[in-house]
Design goal:
It is a single chain. The chain is of the alpha+beta class. Helices cover about 25% and strands about 45% of the residues. It has helices at about 85-90, 100-105, 145-170; strands at about 5-10, 20-25, 30-35, 35-40, 45-55, 60-70, 70-75, 110-115, 120-130, 135-140. It has a six-stranded mixed beta sheet with strand order 3-4-1-10-9-8, with no helix packed on it. The protein has a four-stranded antiparallel beta sheet with strand order 2-5-6-7, with helices on one face. The longest helix has 28 residues, at about 145-170. The protein has two domains: about 5-140, Mutm (Fpg) Protein, Chain: A, domain 2 (Sandwich); about 145-173. The protein contains three helices and ten strands; from the N terminus they run E-E-E-E-E-E-E-H-H-E-E-E-H. It holds the Pfam family FB_lectin. It comes from Serendipita indica (strain DSM 11827) (Root endophyte fungus). This is Lectin.
């Protein structure tokens, strides 16, 4: 039974622009793309594909989408080195007993991770059509709400400190 996974990429923060630099397939499948939509066609269950994205800031991730035992699954790997490619990493999800092998068996309909290096950023995958043969997943790249709040508080604190120092300097003159 054939499967199709349509992946839509959403970038919610303008401080980095991610572009797809590699599309890979584990076996028996192909990718096609138009703009920020990528379509993985697979001849059956038991395979997957990955999108490797790189930002103009140097950040790199791999997002993996697949079907195992007739159910969808997904994963995201962040903080990649330039040598890490989808072609190199994708077979790791098919090594039983490894963390990546377990991810495939978990058959998640959504997954998110917040990276801290090289920048704090939240990445998430959510299958918005999670059952059947024509699946749809959203890959979202953006700020973590907690990171955003922490940065806002830090910015406000720094601004308040700056204003206090100006006030003290005026009094001392």
């Amino acid at each position: 039974m054939a499967y199709q996974i349509t992946v839509r990429v959403f970038q919610t923060n303008s401080n980095a622009f991610f572009r797809c630099v590699e599309q890979s397939v584990f076996s028996s499948g192909t990718w096609t793309s138009t703009s920020d939509t990528y379509v993985l066609n697979m001849t059956g269950s038991g395979t997957s594909g990955s999108l490797r994205l790189e930002a103009d800031t140097g950040e790199r991730i791999i997002a993996v989408f697949g079907v195992h035992n007739y159910k969808r699954w997904c994963d995201i790997v962040t903080a990649l080195t330039p040598a890490d490619s989808g072609t190199k990493l994708l077979p790791e999800w098919y090594v039983e007993g490894t963390d990546r092998g377990k991810v495939k068996w978990s058959q998640l309909a959504e997954y998110s991770v917040t990276s801290t290096a090289p920048r704090a950023r939240k990445y998430s995958i959510k299958y918005v059509v999670a059952d059947g043969n024509n699946l749809v997943a959203n890959l979202t790249i953006g700020w973590s709400v907690l990171i955003y709040l922490a940065l806002s508080i830090t910015h406000r604190f720094s601004r308040a400190t700056l204003e206090s120092n100006r006030f003290v300097n005026v009094i001392n003159k």
